[in-house]
Amino acid sequence: MGFFNILNVAATGLSAQRIRINVISSNLANVNTTKTETGEPYKRKDLIFREVLDGEFKGGVKVENIVEDKKPFVLKYEPGHPDANEEGYVQYPNVNPIEEMVNMIEATRSYEANVTVLNTAKQLAMRALEIGRG
Amino acid sequence: MTEIKNINFLLPNKLNGTENIKPSNENTGASFTDILKKSIEQVNDAQLQADAAIKAAAAGENIDIHDTMIAIQKADVSLKLMMEVRNKLLEAYQDIMRTQL
Amino acid sequence: MDIFKNSVINDLSYALKVNSIKNDVISNNIANVDTPGYKAKKLEFKEVMEEYFSQGKKLPLKRTDSRHFPGSPNIFNPSSFIREQNNPSLRNDGNDVNLDYEMSEMAKNGIQYSMYAQIIAGKFTGLKSAIAGR
Questions:
Q1: Contacts of C110 in chain A (CB under 8 A)
Q2: pLDDT tens-digit profile of B16-36?
Q3: Cα gap C70→C81, rounded to integer Å
Q4: Residue C72: is its pLDDT beyond 50?
């Protein structure tokens, strides 16, 4: 395993966390979307991470799938709402903003950790080059 | 017949015994030329390894940077050492040539 | 007249290799910090070097590739020492990576790598000045 391996592994981490942050912000943006093209409220999205076990470089992570959360919609009693049903309840997306914020912080932290890996690898490469100097 | 066979059995052994006594200078280490030759081979080896390491890096292979650097430095040091030894030998030779009269 | 036989340079060269592999293990842990079911791995540096120092000097050193240095310990396989951490802190998704631990391990590893690289560079410089007689 050479020097480039660690860069690639860190890069997969960065991509995966970035996709995760995108999904989280989509969830947060749609927290009040009561009707989408399908006629249903916005369904919370989640990602499935998997470790990369094959390929030219060993290790890393990939986003296998983006799935919809199967948790039931949140019902709120708002009889005046245009999307209310016969009993006056409106279906809201199954997105919990607090949970999404916590996930966002975690994803950011993971993202930064991978950035540190990248910077460290670069530094060490510079040190190794110094062996050849002088 | 068996007695004759037995004698033949003995004699070859005796001959083998003398064959085993080799001239002694073959066993007492290598000569100066041999040492010099071996050193040149080693320096050449180091150069080849350094070149191989550089080639791997140039081909974009997944190498370890420190391995490449260490190979290059080893080749460099070996070569420098050999050059200095050569210089000293040359100096010594010239000294000897000057004193002959 | 191989001036590098039994040299500390060969020892440090192997140490750098082990350090690189450990770096790979750590960066893979960090990239997979959110992968469900992923078990964190580790490489005990001391354990690997113990094998090298106790056996390496006695066994004949083989060259299986023209790029191998004569006297380089390519009979050892540091990757065989990679194990699972079996971290007690297991999360709901089955992942047991402790990000803070991985970050500190990476920092330690990086310092160690820099140290070895610097020592090797110094050794070569010293050899060259000794040869030049200056």
A1: 120, 123-124
A2: 444 455 454 444 566 778 878
A3: 24
A4: no
B64 touches chain A (CB under 8 A): yes
CB contact under 8 A, B64 and A131: no
Q: Any CB–CB contact under 8 A between B59 and chain A? A: no
C-alpha span between A48 and A89 (Å, rounded): 32
**Residue A109: closest CA among C30, C87, C36:** C30
Contacts of B48 in chain C (CB under 8 A): 66
Q: What is the complex's ipTM, to 2 decimals? A: 0.79
pLDDT band per the 50, 70, 90 thresholds, residue C70: very low
Cα–Cα distance measured from residue A23 to residue A44, given in angstroms and rounded to the nearest whole number: 9
d(CA C56, CA C15) in angstroms, rounded, equals 13
Burial of residue C85 (CB within 10 Å: 0-12, 13-18, 19+) is middle
A131 touching B (Cβ < 8 Å): yes
Interchain CB distance below 8 Å, B62 and A129 = no
Q: Is the distance from CB of C41 to CB of C83 less than 8 angstroms?
A: yes
User: In this complex, how many residue pairs, one in chain B and one in chain C, have their CB atoms less than 8 Å apart?
Assistant: 54
d(CA C27, CA C44): 15
Which residues in chain A are closer than 8 Å to C16, comparing Cβ atoms?
A: 128
For chain A, the average pLDDT equals 90
CB–CB contacts below 8 A, A to C: 105
DSSP string of chain B, one letter each residue: -HHHHHHHHHHHHHHHHHHT---GGGTS---HHHHHHHHHHHHHHHHHHHHHHHHHHHTT----HHHHHHHHHHHHHHHHHHHHHHHHHHHHHHHHHHH--
Are A64 and A49 in contact by the 8 Å Cβ rule? The answer is yes
